[in-house]
Design a protein that fits this description.
Elements lengths: L1 H26 L6 H8 E7 L6 H7 L3 E5 L2 H5 L6 E5 L5 H17 L4 E6 L2 E3 L3 H11 L7 E4 L9 E2 L8 E5 L3 H7 L7 H11 L3 E4 L3 E3 L3 H10 L14
Parallel strand pairs: 1-2, 1-4, 2-3, 6-9
Antiparallel strand pairs: 4-8, 5-10, 6-8, 7-9
Helix pairs in contact: 2-6, 5-7, 7-8
Keywords: Signal
């Protein structure tokens, strides 16, 4: 009798969770307040060399933020409105880790609650109208000890294992940014691995959801964007092995 009641409770709980997920998923592209929520709560950082690759595409979609560039003068030739530029030169892999550390330091100084850190060779997998709704949905339950890898499949509400693979899209709570920045250069490591170890040292729980993917075929993507600045590629196909 007890086991039967327990099974019923489990089934009921699963149905409630499923209903919530279906409702949330159906509403992510119709939230008119999502972009305002993003502007009020998120500071965006783009790490770039010369404001090339996907830089114009990103700044067309994201409503302002901070740019860390190797070549300040080059970037100012095509200055995007609403973006503040900082020169942060990179000579090697370790230099890029230092650049990522600088982004975390600026994040800690921001007046926004969270920071979205993007590399300049990404594309968003969804149309612009639903990007900020997805961010709002997946980050709604995070606290100061929560960070998100937004380049991998998952539901942002749940904790996952730490990953040291790719740092193209990360969301960090500003309250933990000082600790992460202080740990980034503890070992001479690439930025993504250094960030993983920093999160472990700072007791940050990693979550994940898929918002971006690496550009990959640069010439093809560049040609498409010249025709349509808001062009979005199809999500990658997942095949069963």
């Amino acid at each position: 009798m007890f086991m039967r009641r327990r099974r019923r409770m489990v089934v009921l709980a699963l149905l409630v969770i499923l209903t919530t997920l279906i409702y949330a998923h159906s509403s992510i592209s119709v939230d008119p307040l999502a972009i305002q929520h993003f502007s009020d709560n998120f500071e965006t950082f783009i790490l770039t060399k010369e404001c090339k690759r996907s830089f114009d595409y990103i700044t067309t979609i994201v409503p302002g933020g901070t740019v860390l560039t190797d070549n300040y003068e080059k970037c100012m030739e095509k200055e995007a409105a609403g973006w503040e530029y900082h020169e942060s030169s990179v000579d090697n892999e370790q230099g890029y880790t230092e650049k990522y550390k600088r982004a975390l330091e600026l994040c800690a100084e921001s007046d926004k609650a969270k920071c979205l850190i993007l590399e300049d060779d990404i594309v968003f997998i969804n149309p612009p109208k639903s990007i900020f709704s997805r961010i709002k949905l997946h980050t709604m339950f995070g606290g100061p000890q929560t960070a998100w890898d937004c380049s991998k499949v998952g539901l942002g509400w749940f904790k996952t294992g730490q990953t040291g693979n790719k740092s193209i899209c990360r969301i960090i709570d500003k309250r933990v940014a000082p600790c992460l920045a202080s740990e980034m250069l503890r070992n001479a490591l690439p930025a993504d691995i250094a960030l993983k170890l920093a999160q472990i040292a700072c007791k940050v729980n990693q979550h994940r959801f898929l918002l971006t993917q690496h550009t990959g075929f640069k010439s093809y993507l560049r040609a498409e964007r010249e025709r349509d600045p808001l062009w979005i590629p199809s999500p990658p196909k997942i095949t069963d092995k």
